[in-house]
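Today's session is about reading a structure prediction critically. Students often jump straight to the picture, but the first step is always the sequence itself: look for stretches that repeat, for charged clusters, for runs of hydrophobic residues. Only then move on to the predicted structure, which in these notes is written as discrete structure tokens rather than atom positions. Here is the chain we will use throughout the hour.
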Amino acid sequence: MFVSKAFQALGRSLIILGGLTLLFVAYQLWGTGVLTDRYQSDLEEDFTELIEVVEESTSTTDTPKTSDTDISNYAELLWRPEGQAMAQIVIPKMGLTATVVSGVSSESLRRGPGHFPDTPMPGMPGNSAIAGHRTTWGAPFGNIEKLEPGDEIKIQTIQGSFTYVVLEQNAGRGNFIVSPNEFDVLNQNFNSSPNRLTLVSCHPKLTARNRIIVVAELIGEPAESFQRPDYLSQPRFTFSFDEEVIAEALGEDGFEDLSQGAIERDTSLLNEEEPEVNTQVEESNRSEISDVSTTQENLTPTTQPQQVSGFGEGLSGDRSAITPSITWGLALITLIMTTGFIAKRWRRWPTYFLSLAPIIAVMLVWFFNLDRALPSY
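Below is the predicted structure for this chain, in token form.
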């Protein structure tokens, strides 16, 4: 009799576990998308208000913003805090129109595509990078593999609208695959087509094993370059380059010699190269920034080392969510066991009815934290 009861308890446990697994999968595939849609609706309104604020400020200002205060205020509007709206991206081939947020943390990528804060803003000189989920949380980059050479990517920031064209990779494709720790795709040291946009997502679908990369080239002149307000206080991070990987991914003509000697020469000549970069920006935007471009600290050299805390860290899972996941999981198990215990000693269906709402609430909180802890895709 004891063995029979044990098997019955085991069977019920497996049924409950299987049901929770199916519910969690449904939450990831569809429930997260509902939350992202709500985030995107609010972000779209925020970005529209941001554009209106900038336009109103510009229309009431007759003189160029040459003071340090003016430049700082404009930079704060351009470089938004973590998780806030900072651009809008439109990719017709993917059927995508989304508001881009600042940052690539787990919280940020739940809201929509996220901009790597240690790369230039879209439209600025350099290689701007944006990450997005491919399966969960609205799957903004769900069709990223459909992008082909020549497809357009349009981005709007408070500096204006910019158009990028997808570059051809190996075998005529518009993408290539790298491992999650290949920071080199965010490299700023380009010889040809230095003004780029790099899209990052998980590959293959339903996993976070690798990253799929799409690189696009800016059409036309870049916008004026503004430093991030906290840029000078940030520790620097120098990329470690894998020349064979980069040569295979983007072509040998797209990169300069990335040997150690070349990197050291680039670093030693950085101060000598800065005036040249400034001159290029000034010539391409002479009518707009004739006075501002004379401010040396206002321009961020595209060849400077970039700080990176994680390559798509929001795609790799949040370790800080492990403890809450375990805690809420145990709370759910306790609540289910308590419900079963009370149902045996009281009335079954009234007990189930009264405990349904608390179980659903605890389960959703557990799902939320469990999704944070696991690699997102």
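Discussion point for the tutorial: Residues 317-377 form one domain.
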